Amino acid sequence: MAEVRSGGSYLSQNDLRLHFGLDANEKMDEVEIRWPNGNVERLQDVPANFIYRVTEAAGFRGRRPYHSFSFGADRPRTQLR
Predict the structure, then answer these.
(1) pLDDT (mean) for 49-65
(2) End-to-end CA distance of the chain
(3) Helix (H) or strand (E) run with residue 42 in it
(4) Does pTM surpass 0.85?
(5) Tens-place pLDDT, residues 63-78
(6) Interatomic CA distance for residues 18 and 63, integer angstroms
């Protein structure tokens, strides 16, 4: 379970996005969202590798591809002179 908390301390803002590692899975079978007013929303067969925008009582409001950022060997090397 993960929880969104909007503020952490004075004059600060936490990221409102949640990130779930799915390993090699291509979808989430079910996502359960418990809203602050007590409502529960369940989303089925949610494809991986997207950032979703979900609104209370309206479900998915949009999505965009998620691109992972890698520091691995496949990254082009830049030399400083």
Answers:
(1) 87
(2) 47
(3) strand 40-47
(4) no
(5) 999 876 665 555 555 5
(6) 14
